[in-house]
């Protein structure tokens, strides 16, 4: 049986006054490299940041000193929500392998332990049994202390609306700006509450940033991340502008 949208999901939608930041922080922690994130958290206290940490394409058995220090610093800001990176392998990873990653995250000390999960490589509904796995691992995360915020990164639109029911939010586009241009009409046609949706666009031209923030925040999307950079291995120079635009749009 598939799980329907949770009460937690509904409460998040009601409580949020604006679109949140969904930041794939695939950057090794240092005071310099994570400083723009700390500064944004401090400067925009009413904006929620769901920060995806990914030390080793998933969890490491224990956090090293840099991750311990970095996450502890993030957690001094009440608007920072630490979110665990977990791969699902486009429907090919077993339930056991995925829940094993969740268990590993749960062995991290409570001072650095995530409270939510970013399920990457979520399969859009073409592989038999893949959605049963997504339903099962979402329930497992919720029952094991990592259920504050769950997101399925489909990277594209699921084949039908059932795909939106497993997590609090679904990433319906992840890719570069050029690819978004060919997918925008399909994304615009999605007929579920916008608060359950997220988009991640990289290689975004600087002149497009304000317009895209206005578009998706105006629609009430649950979260977004836009960057001019080619990926997530740095916090790029347009970060401050992106966060300021998003905060103002709320």
Defining traits:
single chain, 250 residues, alpha/beta, 8-stranded parallel β-barrel, 8 helices, disordered N terminus
Number of helices: 8
**Strand order across the largest sheet:** 1-2-3-4-5-6-7-8
Q: Tell me about the biggest sheet? A: 8 strands, parallel, barrel
Structural class estimated from helices and strands: alpha/beta
Fraction of residues in β-strands: 15-25%
Explain how this protein is built.
The chain is an alpha/beta fold and 250 residues long. Helices cover 35% and strands 18% of the residues. It is built from 8 helices and 8 strands; from the N terminus they run αβαβαβαβαββαβαβα. The protein has helices at residues 7-15, 35-43, 65-74, 95-106, 130-143, 177-188, 209-219, 239-249, and strands at 20-25, 49-53, 80-87, 116-120, 150-153, 169-176, 197-202, 223-226. It is globular, with a radius of gyration of 17 Å.
Write the layout of secondary structure elements.
Layout: H1 7-15, E1 20-25, H2 35-43, E2 49-53, H3 65-74, E3 80-87, H4 95-106, E4 116-120, H5 130-143, E5 150-153, E6 169-176, H6 177-188, E7 197-202, H7 209-219, E8 223-226, H8 239-249
Parallel strand pairs: 1-2, 1-8, 2-3, 3-4, 4-5, 5-6, 6-7, 7-8
Helix pairs in contact: 4-5, 7-8
Short overview:
This protein is an alpha/beta fold. Helices cover 35% and strands 18% of the residues.
């Amino acid at each position: 049986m598939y799980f329907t949208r949770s009460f937690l999901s509904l409460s998040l939608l009601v409580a949020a006054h604006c679109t949140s930041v969904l930041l794939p922080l695939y950057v090794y922690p240092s005071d310099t490299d994570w400083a723009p994130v700390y500064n944004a958290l401090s400067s925009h206290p009413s904006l929620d940041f769901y920060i995806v940490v990914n030390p080793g394409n998933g969890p490491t058995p224990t956090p090293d000193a840099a991750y311990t220090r970095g996450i502890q610093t993030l957690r001094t800001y009440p608007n920072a929500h630490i979110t665990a990176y977990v791969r699902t392998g486009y429907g090919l990873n077993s339930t056991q392998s995925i829940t094993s990653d969740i268990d590993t995250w749960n062995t991290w000390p409570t001072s650095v332990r995530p409270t939510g999960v970013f399920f990457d490589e979520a399969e859009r509904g073409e592989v038999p049994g893949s959605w049963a796995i997504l339903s099962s691992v979402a329930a497992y995360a919720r029952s094991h202390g990592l259920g504050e915020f769950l997101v399925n990164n489909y990277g594209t639109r699921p084949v039908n609306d059932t795909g939106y029911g497993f997590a609090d939010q679904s990433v319906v586009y992840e890719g570069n700006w050029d690819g978004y241009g060919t997918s925008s009409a399909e994304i615009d046609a999605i007929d579920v509450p916008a608060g359950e949706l997220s988009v991640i666009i990289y290689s975004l031209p600087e002149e497009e940033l304000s317009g895209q923030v206005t578009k998706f925040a105006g629609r009430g999307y649950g979260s977004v991340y836009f960057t001019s950079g080619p990926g997530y291995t740095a916090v790029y120079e347009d970060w401050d502008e992106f966060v300021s635009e998003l905060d103002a749009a709320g």
